């Protein structure tokens, strides 16, 4: 019986280490890595990619494109965890919950592009509402999110965890040029016709995301309220293993959102907080930026491609 070989290219980065940890001990795959002295050797990397069944790329964008160019074996399948191919034709977007057919598309794909951490929450909230006609495609959206500093990669981790006593800022808003690389991904896969405002930030904790999207009910189709928005999300994700929609009663009783509550899982929790008197709704998403926002999603996609 053939045991599929999975090669992680870039297994010493934040996402790569997490994926390696999630796959360690599994007997249904053979996990291939390169020794330290060969990790930057293009010939050995190319050989490892072409010798495997599925390659998972945990690399900067340019290096991911380079790795894809190494593929000569037509049987090799690729999961790219970088942002290099998230809006590129020919790549299947690796969010299994995107619509009813997406998991099957991933299962059959040769090339899968893992979603970005922030887009995972934004698209999960927005796409069902847009598909149902409850949220106009040209709605003037503002998406606010705070992530643990691990979302900034190795440099941010080193800054916040430096042992020499330097204290990093407790909170940072960034992307102020309004050119964050996740914005086109959100616009495309959520089904928007207009570019949203996307305002990301980091907090002084390691991992976990809280995302919020404010909605004015007066800008939605007549008769649309918080209950209807909630029902749409609840129906879309009723059979989803890794997506939970908070019951409205729980949302009414919630006074704060903890970005770390789902750390270590591959789960995504969505919420609808409505104030009918004010005509306002706040959509929310809570998840682990290293879980459903990165390594957990990659393993979920891997399992679909393996038929697990």
General description of the model:
The protein folds into 2 domains: 5-114 and 294-306, NAD(P)-binding Rossmann-like Domain (Rossmann fold, 3-Layer(aba) Sandwich); 117-289, Dihydrodipicolinate Reductase, domain 2 (2-Layer Sandwich). The strands form 2 sheets. The protein has a 7-stranded mixed beta sheet. Strands 2-1-3-4-6-5 form a 6-stranded parallel beta sheet, with helices on both faces. By secondary structure, it is of the alpha/beta class. The chain is globular, with a radius of gyration of 20 Å. The mean pLDDT is 95. It is 33% helix and 21% strand.
The CATH class of the largest domain is identified as Alpha Beta
Order of helices and strands: EHEHEHEEHEHEHEHEEHEHEEH
What is the helical fraction, as a range of percent? 25-40%
- CATH structural architecture of the largest domain: 2-Layer Sandwich
- Helical stretch tally: 10
Number of domains as seen in the coordinates = 2
**Stretches with pLDDT under 50, minimum 5 residues:** none
How does the overall form come out from the CA principal axes?
globular
Strand % is 15-25%
* CATH H-level superfamily title of the largest domain: Dihydrodipicolinate Reductase, domain 2
């Amino acid at each position: 019986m053939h045991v599929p070989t999975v090669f992680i290219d870039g297994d010493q980065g934040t996402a790569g280490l997490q994926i390696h940890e999630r796959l360690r001990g599994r007997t249904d795959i053979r996990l291939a890595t390169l020794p330290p002295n060969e990790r930057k050797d293009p010939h050995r990397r190319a050989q490892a990619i072409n010798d495997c069944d599925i390659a998972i790329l945990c690399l900067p964008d340019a290096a991911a494109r380079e790795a894809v160019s190494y593929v000569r074996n037509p049987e090799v399948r690729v999961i790219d965890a970088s942002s290099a191919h998230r809006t590129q034709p020919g790549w299947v977007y690796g969010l299994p919950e995107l619509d009813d057919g997406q998991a099957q598309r991933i299962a059959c794909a040769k090339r899968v592009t893992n979603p970005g951490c922030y887009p995972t929450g934004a698209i999960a909230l927005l796409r069902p509402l847009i598909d149902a006609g409850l949220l106009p495609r040209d709605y003037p959206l503002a998406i606010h999110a705070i992530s643990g500093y691990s979302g900034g990669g190795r440099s941010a981790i080193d800054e916040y965890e430096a042992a020499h006593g330097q204290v990093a800022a407790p909170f940072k808003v960034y992307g102020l040029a309004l050119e964050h690389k996740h914005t086109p991904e959100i616009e495309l896969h959520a089904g928007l016709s207009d570019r949203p405002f996307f305002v990301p930030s980091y907090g002084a904790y390691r991992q976990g995301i809280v995302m919020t999207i404010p909605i004015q009910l007066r800008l939605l189709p007549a008769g649309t309220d918080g209950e209807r928005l909630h029902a749409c999300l609840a129906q879309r994700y009723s059979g989803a293993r890794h997506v939970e929609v908070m019951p409205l009663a729980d949302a009414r009783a919630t006074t704060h959102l903890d970005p770390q509550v789902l750390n270590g899982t591959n789960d995504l929790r969505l919420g609808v907080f409505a104030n009918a008197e004010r005509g306002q709704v706040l959509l929310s998403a809570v998840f682990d930026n290293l879980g459903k926002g990165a390594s957990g999603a990659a393993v979920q996609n891997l399992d679909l491609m393996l038929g697990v």
